Backbone:
């Protein structure tokens, strides 16, 4: 096969990264750069969109240099990005009218509450698969109109553009030629109808958002634009676009209904492919577009866990009973059992499927024989139990059984955790060699987009590091999980100040 290179731009919340992959889907070089976070008021989280663009350009040039490549050696560009973060810019000057409002920013809490108070919860959920929450782009767009005068003036002249980070980067890469976004990113805005595949007129009207500011929605894979020679040194097709979690799902080749991936980082991000039908949840899971390719839309259901790897960080930095996160694997392996110890790491309340804000972290079952190693073990096991809680809910609400769980993220390196996860789920777990599954997903989408690969080729290209298969007796699994649920109920009881 002829040598080919794909540059995957992975624009994250704290840093940007460009990874150059070759025709086999292997990493050739990589460069990342952090950029500044702005917190001007409590709850506000902002980015400078120009700084983001410059960090991407810097990484692109450096990554190519490290690989000894010139821009014309790059066959395609793939883009994956922090989702929901909102940029508004002047179409004539290309300048952002204010800083980008980051997904984490809660500055639109009041706007969200207003919408909920007006009884719009169900309408937005039905049409977009999401809940009304400051995370998503719609209330952020509204915020610009309520707080930045220029937004209204420019919109009146049809000179205002809205975009998530993918749109912004493509605008810059194409020198202002293209104002587009892909299905997966559009599905995180809270104004995109995931059934009709249109910006939703009714929702736009409620929010008083003009149609003229919206990007055109294009497939996640396929040549949608060309990066301009005067911008990056060669005319290069931009042939893959997806939001970060969807890109990771793609990078893990979760192409079939029931395929899921879990990213074990600070928290956990779980996505399950639900095929060509969107599945709605009554318990806080989100419905989203996984990708749209060749006229076919596939959907995913998404759940998150607030505290996962951060509980391990707490053992290290708060309790100071370990020196490094890596050490937890050996310490947990030194125990014969959990000795009846369960840890509910509800540092910031309980999320899916419980939704109890007042809950706090609790240990259960401590006896005189419990050592540091049992505390460590209970912490790792808690990550696995929480994952099982979310997967159980996904299975129940979608009627789809988990086929295979692919894993990534820092804590997925922990073999004890992965084996326990497999045991408690009673499912096979596969861990890939390439951990940068987000960038890999952007690379795969871009490669398919220029017909370098077919989707089927990717399944063979995806390289397995290790498989974990269940090796626990049903009785033990049932008993452990029942005890976890008892611990949860006790934790919830402690949060209930009125009745106890
Ligand atoms: P994020 O992208 O959310 O910052 P990463 O994917 O980099 O997260 O993973 C880092 C998290 O994983 C940290 O919270 C850390 O405590 C945890 N972690 C890293 N390595 C291990 C390990 N070997 N065992 C358990 N937890 C780990």
Residues:
């Amino acid at each position: 096969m002829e040598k080919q290179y794909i540059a995957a731009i992975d624009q994250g919340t704290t840093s940007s990264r460009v990874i150059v992959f070759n025709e086999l889907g292997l990493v050739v070089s990589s460069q990342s750069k952090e950029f500044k976070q702005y917190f001007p008021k409590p709850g506000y989280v902002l980015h400078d969109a120009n700084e983001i663009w410059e960090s991407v350009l810097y990484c692109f040039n450096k990554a190519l240099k490290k690989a000894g490549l010139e821009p014309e050696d790059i066959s395609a560009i793939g883009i994956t990005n922090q989702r929901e973060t909102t940029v508004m810019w002047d179409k004539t000057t290309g300048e952002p009218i204010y800083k980008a409002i980051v997904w984490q920013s809660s500055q639109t809490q009041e706007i969200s509450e207003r919408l909920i108070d007006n009884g719009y919860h169900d309408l937005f959920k039905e049409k977009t698969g999401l809940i009304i929450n400051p995370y998503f782009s719609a209330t952020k767009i509204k915020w610009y109109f309520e707080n930045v005068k220029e937004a209204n003036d420019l919109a009146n002249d049809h000179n205002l553009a809205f975009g998530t980070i993918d749109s912004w980067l493509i605008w810059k890469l194409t020198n202002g030629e293209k104002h587009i976004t892909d299905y997966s990113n559009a599905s995180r805005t809270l104004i995109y109808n995931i059934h009709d595949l249109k910006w939703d007129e009714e929702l736009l009207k409620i929010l008083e958002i003009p149609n003229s500011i919206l990007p055109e929605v294009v497939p996640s894979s396929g040549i949608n634009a060309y990066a301009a020679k005067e911008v990056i040194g060669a005319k290069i097709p931009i042939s893959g676009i997806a939001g970060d979690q969807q890109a990771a799902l793609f990078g893990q080749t979760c192409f079939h209904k029931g395929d899921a991936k879990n990213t074990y980082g600070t928290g956990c991000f779980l996505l399950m492919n639900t095929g060509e039908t969107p599945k709605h949840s009554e318990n806080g899971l989100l419905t989203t577009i996984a990708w749209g390719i060749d006229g076919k839309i596939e959907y995913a259901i998404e759940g998150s866990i607030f505290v996962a790897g951060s509980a391990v960080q707490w053992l290290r930095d708060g309790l100071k009973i370990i020196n490094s996160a890596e050490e937890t694997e050996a310490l947990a392996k030194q125990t014969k059992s959990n000795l009846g110890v369960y840890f509910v790491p509800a540092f910031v309340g309980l999320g899916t499927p419980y939704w109890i804000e007042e809950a706090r972290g609790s240990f259960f079952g401590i006896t005189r024989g419990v050592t540091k190693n049992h505390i460590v073990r209970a912490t790792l096991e808690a990550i696995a139990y929480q994952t099982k809680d979310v997967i159980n809910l996904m299975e129940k609400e979608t009627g789809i059984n988990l086929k295979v769980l692919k894993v990534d993220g820092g804590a997925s390196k922990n073999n004890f955790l992965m084996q326990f996860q497999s045991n408690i789920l009673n499912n096979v777990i596969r861990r890939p060699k390439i951990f940068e599954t987000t960038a890999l997903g952007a690379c795969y989408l871009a490669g398919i987009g220029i017909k370098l690969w077919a989707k089927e080729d990717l399944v063979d290209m995806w390289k397995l590091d290790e498989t974990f298969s269940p090796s626990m007796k049903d009785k033990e699994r049932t008993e452990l999980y029942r005890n976890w649920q008892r611990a949860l109920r006790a934790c919830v009881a402690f949060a209930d100040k009125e009745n106890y």
